[in-house]
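Quick one: C-alpha cells for this chain, please?
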Amino acid sequence: MPKTISLCMIAKNEEKWLEQCLNSVKEIVEEIIIVDTGSTDKTKEIARKFDAKIIDFEWIDDFSAARNESIKHATKDWILVMDADEVIEKNDLERIKSIIENPNDFAGFSLEQRSYLNAYFEGAVKNSSDFELVKEYPFYISHYLVRLFKNNLGFQFRHRVHELAEDSIKGKGLKYDKAGIVLHHFGSLKDDGLIQEKTVEYSKIILRQLEENSVSARYNYQAARMFLGRNDFSNALKYFEKTAKLEPKYKLVFSEIAKIYMQMNDKNKAMEYFKKSMKSNPENPSPANNLAVIYMSMGKFEAAKKILEGQLQKHSDNRALKYNYEKVLENLKEKL
C-alpha cells in the first residue's frame, strides 16, 4: 500500500495565499487539516473548497500549540506541514512521494524554505530559479526546517515562536535528513502593514518566551536579533553577550557581537570578537573572512593576506574568501 500524507496547517486571514498553496500540493495529500486562529476573511471558505477539516483554535501566543493541535488530528502515515503563504513546485511532489516510500532510517525530512525578497538583505542569496511563481524576485533567504515527518511517533513542535519539530525528533533518539525539496515562501512580500503587525506579535512572544526561560541560549539570541532589528544596539549586545555566556558556540554569536561593534565604529572591539568567533568556530570561514575585511579597511593588507591564505587552504571554493583575496593582491600590487 502506498504511504499517505496529511497536510497540516495553521492559518489566520490568508485568503490571498491559501488557494495557491493548496493547489500546489492537493494531488499528493489525502487529507487537509487547517487550524484557524481567528480568520475574519474568506480563509475558511477557501479551505472548504478543498474539503479541508477546519479546527477553530483560540490563539494563546504560541505557534507550537497551534501546530500541535493540527497534527493531533492527522490520520495518515506522514505529516506535511506548510504555511498558507508557501508553495511546492510540481517536480518536487514526486520527490516527496518517493522519499516517504523509502525513508531509510529517517523519521523526518527538512525542506529548504526560501523566503523571497524584492531587495537585498544580509544573508540573502541571488535567485536564479525559473519557477514561474518566483522568478521575478531577485533574492531569497534560505532556512532548513523539518516539515515532513512520520505520524504516530509522538512528535511535537516546541517553542512559542520560530517553532521546530527537530528538537522532538532528536529527543526521541531519531534522525532526520535534508530532502532536497524547496518550500517557496512569500511571507516577506506581504503588505508592509501585515509585516509590521507580525513583527510586533513576534516581539511580544519572544520576550514572553525569554521571561519563561531566561537561561535558554536560543531565546536570548532571538531577543538580541529582535533588538538588532530595531537598531537598539545596547539591548542587542546585552542579549548576544548573554547567549555567548550560556553557549559560546551558538550560531556564530561572537560574530554577531563583532558586527554590532562594527556598526558602532569600534574596530578594535570588532576584531577582538571576530577572533573569539574564529576560536569557537574553527571550521567556519566567515569570522576569519570578516576579520580580514577589517584589516583591509585599515590598510593592513599583509595581515589580511595571511588570514585569507590560511582559510583558502581549508575552503578553496569559498567565493567570499576568493573575492577578498583578489582584492588584497590588487592592493599589494598597487603598493609595489
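The mean pLDDT is 95.
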